[in-house]
Each structure stands twice: as structure tokens, then as C-alpha cells.
Design a protein that fits this description.
With about 110 residues, this protein is mainly β. Helix content is about 5%, strand content about 55%. It starts with a strand and ends with a helix.
């Protein structure tokens, strides 16, 4: 689930979104064209950097945890249990998957 709390992530300008991630959620390696800041609201968010999804190399961010990402940083994430994450950034927000086959939008076409 995704809720936009402020702004419009699809347009230029600041935005705030909250994501409720279900248990077992996996986000393949990807990057964004803008900086973003992540804050864990509840649960544990597992976060790793690089072009390869490696669960053993991910860092656990517990509730209250924060991580800032620069534009272009390659990263991946997952949640073992339900987790809520807040993302702050400047739009337009986009996701470019390192492996284009990981893009769920591609599967819808």
C-alpha cells in the first residue's frame, strides 16, 4: 500500500509518501534520478547497496531508523514482516531497475 502525504511524486517539487510493505516484500536492485530519504515508521526494513540482491549483505533498519540516498545510488530492499517506511524526496520520483526484467510495469504491458 502507498499513501501520498504531501506533494505529488510525479511532478517537480517536494513529496512525502508512506509505504506499507507486506511480510516477504522484495524490491530488486534499482536507482532513482533524485535524492531520497527513508525513515522506518514501524517494523524492520532491510536495505542493501549494489547491483545484486544479496539478503545476507543487507542492513536492518528498525523503527526510527533513517537512511539518505543520493541520486543514482544502486540499492535493494526487503521486509521479513509487515513494515511501514516513509520516503521524502523531490519529484518527479522514478525507479530505474538495474535489470529491466525486474520492472513490474514491464510485466503489465
Amino acid at each position: 500500500k502507498l499513501a501520498v502525504l504531501q506533494g505529488d511524486p510525479g511532478k517537480p517539487g517536494p513529496f512525502v509518501i508512506r509505504l506499507m510493505l507486506p511480510a516477504g516484500f522484495k524490491l530488486p536492485p534499482h536507482a532513482h534520478s533524485q535524492d531520497e530519504s527513508l525513515t522506518v515508521i514501524s517494523g524492520t526494513f532491510y536495505f542493501g547497496t549494489g547491483d545484486k540482491f544479496e539478503m545476507s549483505k543487507a542492513h536492518a533498519l528498525n523503527a526510527g531508523g533513517f537512511h539518505a540516498l543520493s541520486a543514482g545510488d544502486h540499492h535493494y530492499a526487503f521486509a521479513k514482516a509487515q513494515t511501514v517506511v516513509q520516503v521524502n524526496g523531490m519529484g518527479p520520483f522514478n525507479i530505474t531497475y538495474i535489470n529491466p526484467d525486474d520492472d513490474p510495469q514491464k510485466a503489465k504491458k
